[in-house]
């Protein structure tokens, strides 16, 4: 094995820009780098910091990211980007208050990803922009944290998973429940058979109101509405269309997401995939609420496991029902097991371990230094997003959808198959 004589003066930036070549060639030419170069010795010098750009300045999610990353000594923020000037300035003021007033404000994300000094980006835009920005960033040698769901369509998801491999980048999808000790324990208990064979899983997603069109309004000054729409069809502006809100806003509209499937579903379906060991596969049959009198939407796996949405009998975010007991898990540290001993028992040495991460953003940072895969890379996030999208297609067509997770194709339904992708407006083609 050859040894790389790189010294501690090697810049973090140069390392990241060259990392895709290292990733592709590492099987043939192993590379050893000193921990001080990568910042793994706990002392991170200024030239080893990760230069970061934030793309999307509105909403609580980006505020959470800013709070974490500004307090992290590994991070140097360089850019904040948004198509809405008012949101951009408001978020910039937070940087300024925390002594980061030299961060650059820009309207166009292209300015961020085309700057070679930027090592990585955090993408917190609405869902319909996730993949285009992420692939463009990876093509310019950037690592990516992208909020969930990773994609708007199944074909977009395939594209970003392929780009992750092609460019050798580090991607973290914002499915942060994988970095929660209680969701991990629930998944590990299920994976190791502590409640027997899983028969049903119940998830609570809630509901958005139906999309409601408002009267056309004047586009506010300082808001690039055309770019906000991006690939989506051009529609008249009104404020609720673009509002980010837990009660709706843009999330109500199919044009920009998958409604509750892409909201809470992206979190809970992801944990189910993890618990069942299905990260590289998925369900095969999707049935919408109301079809043949069905009270609840559901999907099933080939092994018969049935995942049922919004049955009021179950109060937890996720409830696993097995032949030997139940496990309910929710945010806020709520883990309830039918056998109380399971909640705190020590696992056996022979039990299958799951990837341990106790802070999702930190896992991304650690992975950027180590060049090891994150707890939720694009390949995994794509499989979860596919479930969100297939559930949405079944709901919109009001009939069951059959899916082959091996070929990643809808089966024997040409109309439904066309919904795996969507037309994109001219000028907003998907990058390659």
Would you mind describing this structure in some detail?
It is a single chain. The chain is of the alpha/beta class. The model is unreliable at 1-46 (pLDDT under 50). It contains 15 helices and 17 strands. Helix 6 packs parallel to helix 7, helix 8 packs parallel to helix 12 (264-276) and helix 12 packs across helix 14 (378-397). The radius of gyration is 22 Å and the shape is globular. The strands form three sheets. Strands 15-14-13-7-12-11-10-16-17 form a nine-stranded mixed β-sheet. The chain has two domains: 12-176, 3-Layer(aba) Sandwich (Rossmann fold), CATH 3.40.50; 177-350 and 384-432, Dihydrodipicolinate Reductase, domain 2.
Features:
2 domains; single chain; Dihydrodipicolinate Reductase, domain 2; about 425 residues; six-stranded parallel β-sheet; 17 strands; globular; Rossmann fold; disordered N terminus
């Amino acid at each position: 094995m050859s040894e790389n004589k790189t010294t501690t003066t090697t810049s973090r930036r140069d390392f990241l820009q060259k990392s895709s070549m290292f990733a592709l060639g590492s099987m043939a030419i192993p590379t050893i780098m000193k921990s001080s170069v990568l910042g793994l010795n706990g002392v991170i010098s200024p030239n080893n910091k990760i230069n970061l750009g934030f793309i999307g300045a509105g909403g609580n999610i980006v505020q959470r990211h800013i709070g974490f990353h500004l307090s992290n000594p590994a991070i140097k923020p360089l850019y904040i980007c948004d198509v809405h000037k008012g949101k951009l300035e408001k978020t910039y003021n937070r940087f300024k208050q925390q002594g980061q007033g030299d961060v650059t404000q820009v309207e166009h994300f292209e300015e961020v990803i085309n700057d070679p000094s930027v090592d990585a980006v955090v993408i917190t835009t609405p869902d319909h922009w996730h993949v285009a920005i992420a692939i463009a960033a990876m093509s310019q040698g950037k690592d990516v944290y992208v909020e969930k769901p990773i994609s708007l369509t199944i074909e977009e998801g395939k594209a970003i998973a392929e780009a992750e491999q092609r460019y050798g980048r580090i991607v973290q999808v914002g499915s942060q429940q994988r970095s929660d000790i209680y969701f991990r324990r629930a998944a590990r208990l299920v994976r190791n058979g502590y409640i027997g064979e899983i028969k049903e899983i119940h998830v609570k997603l809630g509901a958005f109101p139906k999309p409601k069109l408002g009267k056309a309004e004047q586009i506010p000054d300082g808001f690039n509405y055309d770019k906000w729409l991006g690939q989506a069809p051009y529609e008249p502006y009104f404020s609720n269309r673009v509002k980010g809100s837990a009660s709706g806003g843009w999330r109500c509209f199919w044009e920009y997401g998958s409604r509750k499937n892409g909201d809470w579903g992206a979190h809970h379906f992801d944990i189910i995939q993890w618990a069942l060991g299905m990260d590289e596969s998925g369900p095969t049959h999707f049935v919408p609420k109301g079809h043949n009198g069905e009270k609840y939407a559901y999907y099933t796996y080939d092994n018969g496991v049935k995942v049922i949405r919004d049955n009021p009998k179950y109060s937890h975010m996720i409830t696993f029902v097995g032949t030997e007991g139940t496990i309910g898990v929710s945010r806020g540290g709520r883990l309830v097991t039918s056998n109380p001993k399971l909640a705190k028992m020590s696992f056996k040495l022979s039990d299958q371990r799951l990837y341990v991460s106790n802070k999702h953003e930190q896992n991304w940072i650690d992975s950027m230094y180590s060049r090891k895969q994150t707890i939720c890379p694009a390949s995994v996030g794509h499989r979860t997003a596919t479930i969100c999208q297939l559930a949405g297609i079944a709901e919109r067509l009001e009939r069951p959808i059959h899916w082959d997770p091996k070929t990643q194709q809808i089966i024997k339904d040409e109309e439904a198959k066309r919904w795996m992708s969507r037309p994109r407006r001219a000028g907003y083609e998907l990058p390659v």
